[in-house]
């Protein structure tokens, strides 16, 4: 369990040398029901693109997971968290890493809101996001953002959003 006394996980930009770890974590049977599978080249493309961010979640003991986000502010669509994956479930790592990413998104990217899609059966993730202030939103209200992120607005995943001021 991630305790308040534990050092907060850090985010650092993913390097191509990290991609074997990323792919291994992505392909772990514990994760495959909740995330789509990307090729190594798709991850490398996300690292290189100026409108994408690919982060390794790490501690002093090494990598713990990763986060992928799309910076869609230029399209007036906030920041979209494409994927968050951690190696230890139920330890609070994902929540701590997402809190760190939210600080980055509001402080460094200057966005007014961060949004994501979560599979309806991923109740653990939903609870974690709600604890961080994410709220469910109607698909019709986010259609523009879905299109900007390359998502089908009719996708059955639940949409959640968190505004800078927590509203």
Notable features of this structure?
Aminopeptidase; seven-stranded mixed sheet; globular; 167 residues; 27% strand; single chain; disordered N terminus; alpha+beta
Number of helices: 5
Total beta strands: 7
Low-confidence stretches: 1-5
Distance between the terminal alpha carbons, to the nearest Å?
29 Å
Description:
- This protein is of the alpha+beta class.
- It has a single domain, classed as Gcn5-related N-acetyltransferase (GNAT) (Aminopeptidase), CATH 3.40.630.30.
- The protein contains five helices and seven strands.
- The chain has a seven-stranded mixed beta sheet with strand order 1-2-3-4-5-7-6, with helices on both faces.
- β3 and β4 form a beta hairpin.
- The N terminus is likely disordered.
